[in-house]
Amino acid sequence: MELEKTHAYFNFNDITFIMSCFLLLIIIYAFFTLLQGILRWFKSQQKRPPGPVGLPFLGYLPFLGKEPHKTFWNMKEKYGDIISVYLGPKYTIVLNEYKVAKEILSHPGSLDRAPDLFKHLDVAGFVVENGARWVEQRRFTMSTAKGLGLGKDYWGILIMEELRSLIEKLRELKGKPFDISEDLLSSLNTNILSLLIGRRLGKDEVDKLILSAEFAEAAITKMGPSNPASLVPGLRKAFEIFRIAGYDKARETFLRFSSFIKEEIKRHKTSQTFRDIPDFINSYLEKLSDLSETNEKHHAFSETMLEGNLTLLFLGASDTVYSSLGWLLRIMCKYKDIQEKVHVELMEILDKDGRAKYEERDKIPYTFAVLMEGQRYASNVPLGTTRRANQDIPVNGYIIPKGSEITTNLWGLHHDPVYWDEPEEFRPERFLTNGGTKLIKHPLSYAPFSLGRRNCPGETIAWMEILYYFSEILKRFEISTAPGVEPEFEVINGLVTRLAPQQMCFKERNI
After folding, report:
1. Terminal CA-CA length for the chain
2. 327 with 147: CB under 8 angstroms?
3. pLDDT tens across 43-69, in order?
4. Per the annotation, where are the binding residues for heme?
5. In this structure, are residues 498 and 213 in contact, taking their beta carbons and an 8 Å threshold?
6. 393: exposed, middle or buried (C-beta count within 10 Å: 0-12, 13-18, 19+)?
7. Residue ranges at the known binding site
8. How would you classify the pairing of strands 82-87 and 90-95?
9. What is the mean pLDDT of the chain?
10. Which of 168, 193, 239, 285 would be 244's cystine partner, CB 3.0–4.6 Å?
11. CA angle (385, 315, 224) in 5-degree steps
């Protein structure tokens, strides 16, 4: 009996001892796991690109100034070609050098678009989609655009028809000082809308052209990779509610433009007149109809996606071209000798009735070199639209961690003295070789439409519009600012930088 009690007593102590040891092992394991995690975190921090320390929640936003691209460029000397910085709560990588930018933007891990940049527009669309949905919608959009004539001579004919109206307006002014901004934007918007919605807006629809211009301006100036409203959660909504900085009016404009696009889609669905028009809306609706007759459900085609694609295609084709032409015309007022060289070349090669064609740009190398230098000099999209890393990306001994947002300092790439001699100077000759007779089409550190697979899908269309408008105006008019007034280059910042309006004189040439 005594032996049994002793045996029970020892069993109880054994269990207590074992439990204590087990608990101690768990504590030790948890401690070393935590320590290992902390060490991994510190190691990952050491591998992350260097950058400045900002403020809690706001990050480095308060210190960027009015020209963030130049602020980032000035950090290059201290932090190098790849900078990490918190913009609001978002951990952001800024690419400050061409080779680094090309490597990272061509990496599969950088193919995703950052989710919040276009969020304020409340639209879907291939520009904001990622993964398989992006591939599907972009592929359809690009193939449809080519089928409709974008990037081909048919698209050029449409541009020229609208351009003639603008040329006639400039003739009527007889060289008097005039702010071309509104008429130029209206002309460009009419072009892109006619191809997207299948009709030219009538004279009784001026309000829709005004709405389109207001939409483009509000969308571009109220967003950007360094815009606090695009980065700080809830800030844009607060600005809208409390009517700060025009964000409430911008929101109203977005809603009205959305209604306009929905109305055009409905017109195509309900009106027999519009069902047979070869335009983007009908092509998309036909695809939707074909899919509805099959059992295929794994796709992203919908009317909501159609609305988003139309909105973002318009936005991409409108403001960037408008800004580019605004810069070019102002630059021609400053550099009269360059303007004259362009005019002489156009007249020698095209004569008064010939038309410059993008596919034949080699015939007018100096003129097209001026356009290329305009994109470099102005860099009217100074910071590239933001990507998001969908995996860790190794580069130059650093790790860009998954979830990071990535933006490219395109202005920095275009003003890097390693690649560009005296980058602050406007010199078209830097894009020419063989004694000025041949274009250098793919120079290093040149990326006006970004780099990699996710670059701007409208590059060809943009070049065509810029070339047609620029060549026709320069061929027919001598451009200058008002007598006694110097050209001004006051910048209105946003995702796309515009020049503040200034009157110019368009004196018709005898050709």
Report:
1. 127
2. no
3. 555 599 999 999 998 999 999 999 999
4. 456
5. no
6. buried
7. 456
8. antiparallel
9. 90
10. 239
11. 30
